[in-house]
Amino acid sequence: MKKTMLALAALSLPAIPATIQAQDVGTVSLDDMADGALKGDTLAWDFVEGITTEVGPRQAGTEAEERARHWAMTWLRKNGFANVANEPFEMDTWVPGELHKAEITSPFPQPFVIQPLGGSASTGGDGITGEVVEFANVTALQAAPDGSLAGKIAYISHSMTPTQDGSQYGFAGPARWVGASIAKQKGAIATIIKSVGTDYHRNPHTGGTRVVPDMIPAGALSLPDAANLERMFDRADGRAIMMKLTLTPQNLGKTMSGNVVGEIVGRDPSLPPVLLACHIDSWWNAPGAFDDGAGCGIIAAAALHVSHVGQPLRTIRVLFAGAEETGLWGSRAYSEAHINEPIAVGLESDFGADRIWRFESNFRESNPDLHAKIASSVARFGVANSTIRASGGADLNIMRDQKGAIIDLQQDGTRYFDLHHTPDDTLDKIDPVQLRQNVAVWTQVVGILANEEGAIQNDGIAPVGLPIMQAEER
Length: 474
What we know:
The chain is α/β, with parallel strands linked by helices. The chain has helices spanning 7-10, 30-40, 43-54, 63-78, 138-142, 168-172, 174-177, 179-185, 223-235, 289-309, 329-338, 368-378, 397-402, 416-419, 432-450, and strands spanning 82-95, 100-106, 110-112, 114-116, 128-135, 153-156, 190-194, 218-221, 242-247, 250-264, 274-279, 316-321, 345-348, 356-361, 405-411.
């Protein structure tokens, strides 16, 4: 195969892995480029360091997210991407407000640390006071009689533990996703939850909750404060636990967000492209290094490294989706705008920056040779093959809507929920060695996909929703 280098990619020679010499661009093999990325990639770090330093937190629908889009487009153009654009869309925008306070007023008066959940109603600046009623989990809350929480504050707990695959998110997540809406049905005036996370720092984990008509205030306590509250219940001896809660979020109505796209243009524009996705927004309380600045850096670095091997057969398109955290607005908007444009295969990076340990596809049966080729190619990076059927990241709505081919490159999530949606999601938490392993694996996989001549078809079983740990809109 003739290896023709993209002219635009030639502008980005400093982005080549340090182990690959500039004069070798267009002549080195894909394996060599991936191995070089493992040892010397700086692109992914450059992206996540830059966006967290120069933009910081990027709440969906706000001016900060707009600055992030402009920053990302500048970065993509500087590094040689073509067809860089912002694709705007309108969204309902919620912001957290300034006051986030929870205080036990009796029988053990003391302050707690709390953050509002996305979509929470306001208590007003004067706050509200009510008796707190304890529920061990959402199932216990569902069993409460209708009206039994009138005038009271529901507290919902869980027992989430760390796992490599993040599966405990599906177990504990309903406390956040649906707890407030269920508590409202039971008559509650507000809901507080034990943060859906696994750390024991005094940092609440925010995240979206289901919004219903006449929404009630909803917040998340830090895990140490939740544990303290549970001890209070154990020793209250029948006395009511009273709390004053002050949360002042606002709904701003319709504002603009947008998706950022860019391309490494392929030799054959008639072939459907390979879509690489991440999301550019974060919650307001952190600069979003793990979630998901690193993901955007990983996919962009991989696309560029593939271009340095030579112009790929298929176009590689990156999608930096907007407004993922507050309801997959960008994912849905991208699918609506491009649903009639076939995509060969989609994959997303949105589970931190720790090492990839497992490869999954939804074409193991329909394209067995391609699945086996990819699995074999990444084994040297410590990535295991799997029979689990890929269902795609949160920003790949278009692939599910098109019933297309999907790959999941599963990252180690053991410490992800220590940081997820907390103020601790900062640049220093990223391990550069593990970040480079991600880039190496992605370079290898994307390079194979972008030069695959045949059609890539899924196994014929339509994906069923999102992986539970990536259902950020719930």
